[in-house]
């Protein structure tokens, strides 16, 4: 809240709330320090506020639609220093308007050598700007997984303490005014305006009453044409794959006249860009209706109906070393096992006429009490356990699947072959490749599974890791000789591929084959080896991509895009052969790599006799 006390103890002000911003009007009793007011929030919400000031604290209640909430506000500063000029108002007295501006000359010679490093804590920075006093403003953006909050900071080169100061918290999004004196700070759906200085208080930007008229059909026409222009201006091939792009605009533009809602427009745009017959030409988003949803808490387990109760059929676990792959029922000290029955959630018996997860609706990431027993009915064996539910358990099932495949390969090969799954060629794929490779680089051979690879970046670094050549050995008296480099693998390799691996998942096996690393087993990959960059969004936030860089081979021929990478050994993923967890493609890869081990075993160290270095000189063969 920003409050102003006026004549007759009238109170006026603005409020910023989680449901929207608005204005406030009320009265203040100086004898009792009490205030009563009504806040009008955008969207038609009226909140009755009543409370009392005690020093710098206001405590009271806010009531809306029959619901009352407790309020406690702490004073953050004094009155606003000066009003913010509104559009159309003349500049305040003393303004610099009309004064000649100083001429700025930039000396480009030696520009980089004059740069200095600011003495601030490392981090992710964004939105650099300078205010009217030459002070640097920037946003600190928390890194992934960090508990830090976004903030807007200031650094002044003239400050002898050389300290960064906080300007605003809870946001990393801001705009500075043209004169460098004011900041517009965006927080969620609300915004405030404040002085471009540390310690300043902000005034909420009241959007209640702001309305705009939109002609949907005019907006649809604009978005259609913008989508067409994005492809025209950014597509890697100026000839548009031989398509008459102007004729395409006319053809699909006529279809637009029959659109009756936003989804129809999306369909027309999607069909139009499909005329380019290319991968990575995506369309998504926009002002389309979203369906309401309710979260479901998950246990990382499968349940089955047995003897009139739900039994825990399977608890999903990653590797025993993988602390990131432990679900609610797999925590240390948890007295729950497969075969136990789940009888109640928070004391409420589970209705077996419904899906078992109906008992967990709205409980994602909540801590709950489960009643479990080794028998299907509550009795003396029943016990209660407290768990924190998951919002999703796909990562547990994913880790368990990898470990199951790894164990299968381990068993079938007598421990000689390692198994690595690579889900994509982005950050997750890089992490999974390295974390699995490091633990298995000592195996005689490797199976690299990139089926269902979702792509991402161009995976040349992936190949570099798998293709590091042997340089030498190091003799140790107390250890087996070291092969160098240590973060490398020198034995045979096989890669698994399928039709749902694409983009970077097309490039990965193509580079694998080009490097001569081994055979490809499975089915032909997707065939989408073409890249996309950033593109301007449509007016309602929808996204259209225009493939802007396409793969071609060193001999000057196009390749992969539209076809994919063919396997050396085709093995269909026949569902009839995959029941009970069987995997014919993986079994074939095991056979191929074991045959390769017989023909081409990994090189073994051949330590020479220890040298005789008595006296001076060196044996010529050791030079």
Overall description:
The chain is an alpha+beta fold. The chain folds into five domains: 2-74; 118-204; 216-284, Transcription Regulator spoIIAA, CATH 3.30.750.44; 301-392, PDZ domain (Pdz3 Domain); 413-529 and 564-599, 2-enoyl-CoA Hydratase, Chain A, domain 1 (Alpha-Beta Complex). The protein contains eight helices and 32 strands. The strands form eight sheets. Strands 1-2-3-4-5-6-7 form a seven-stranded antiparallel sheet, with no helix packed on it. Strands 17, 18, 19, 20, 21 and 22 form a six-stranded antiparallel sheet that branches. A five-stranded parallel sheet has the order 23-24-27-28-32, with helices on both faces. Helix 1 runs antiparallel to helix 2. It starts with a strand and ends in a 24-residue tail after the last helix.
């Amino acid at each position: 809240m920003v409050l102003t006390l006026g004549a007759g103890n009238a109170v006026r002000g603005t409020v910023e709330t989680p449901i929207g911003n608005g204005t406030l009007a009320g009265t203040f009793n100086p004898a009792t320090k009490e205030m009563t007011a009504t806040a009008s929030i955008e969207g038609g919400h009226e909140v009755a506020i009543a409370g009392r000031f005690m020093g710098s604290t206001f405590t009271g209640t806010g009531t809306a639609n029959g619901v009352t909430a407790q309020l406690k506000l702490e004073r953050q500063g004094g009155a606003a220093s000066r009003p913010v000029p509104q559009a159309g108002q003349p500049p305040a007295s003393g303004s610099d308007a009309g004064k000649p501006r100083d001429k700025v000359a930039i000396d480009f010679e030696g520009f980089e050598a004059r740069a200095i490093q600011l003495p601030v804590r490392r981090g992710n920075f964004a939105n650099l700007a300078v205010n009217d006093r030459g002070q640097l403003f920037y946003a600190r953006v928390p890194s992934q997984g960090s508990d830090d909050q976004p903030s807007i900071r200031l650094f002044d080169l003239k400050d002898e303490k050389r300290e960064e100061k906080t300007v605003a918290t809870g946001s990393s999004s801001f705009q500075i005014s043209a004169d460098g004196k004011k900041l517009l700070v965006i927080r969620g759906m609300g915004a405030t305006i404040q002085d471009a200085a540390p310690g300043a208080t902000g005034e909420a930007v009241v959007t209640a009453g702001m309305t705009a008229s939109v002609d949907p059909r005019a907006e649809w026409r604009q978005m259609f044409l913008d989508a067409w222009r994005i492809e025209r201006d950014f597509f890697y091939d100026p000839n548009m794959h031989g398509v008459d792009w102007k004729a395409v605009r006319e053809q699909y533009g006529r279809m637009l006249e029959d659109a009756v809602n936003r989804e129809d427009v999306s369909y027309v745009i999607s069909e139009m860009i499909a005329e380019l017959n290319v991968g990575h030409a995506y369309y998504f988003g926009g002002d389309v209706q979203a369906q309401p949803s309710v979260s479901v808490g998950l246990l990382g387990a499968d349940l089955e109906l047995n003897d009139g109760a739900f039994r825990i059929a399977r608890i999903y676990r990653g590797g025993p070393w993988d602390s990131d792959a432990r679900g609610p029922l797999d925590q240390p000290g948890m007295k729950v096992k497969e075969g136990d029955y789940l009888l109640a959630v928070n004391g409420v018996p589970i209705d077996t006429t419904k899906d078992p997860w109906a008992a967990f609706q709205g409980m994602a990431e909540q801590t709950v009490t489960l009643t479990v027993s080794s028998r299907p009915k509550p009795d003396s064996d029943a016990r209660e356990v407290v768990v924190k539910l998951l919002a999703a358990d796909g990562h547990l099932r994913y880790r368990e699947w990898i470990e199951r495949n790894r164990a299968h390969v381990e068993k079938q090969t007598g421990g000689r072959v390692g198994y690595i799954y690579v889900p994509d060629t982005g950050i997750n794929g890089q992490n999974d490749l390295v974390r699995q490779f490091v633990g298995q680089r000592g195996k005689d051979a490797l199976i690299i599974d990139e089926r269902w690879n979702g792509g991402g970046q161009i995976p040349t670094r992936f190949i570099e890791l798998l293709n590091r050549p042997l340089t030498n050995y190091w003799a140790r008296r107390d250890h087996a000789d070291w092969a160098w480099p240590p973060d490398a693998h020198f034995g045979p390799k096989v890669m698994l591929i399928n039709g749902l691996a694409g983009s970077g998942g097309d490039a990965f096996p193509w580079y694998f084959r080009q490097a001569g690393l081994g055979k490809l087993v499975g089915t032909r990959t997707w065939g989408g080896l073409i890249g996309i960059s950033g593109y301007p969004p449509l007016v309602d936030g929808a996204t259209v991509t225009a493939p802007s860089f396409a793969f071609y081979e060193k001999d000057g021929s196009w390749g992969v895009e539209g076809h994919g990478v063919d396997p050396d050994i085709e093995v269909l993923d026949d569902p009839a052969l995959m029941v009970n967890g069987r995997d014919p493609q993986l079994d074939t890869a095991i056979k191929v790599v074991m045959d390769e081990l017989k023909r081409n075993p990994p090189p073994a160290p051949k330590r020479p006799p220890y040298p005789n270095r008595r006296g001076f000189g060196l044996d010529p063969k050791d030079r």
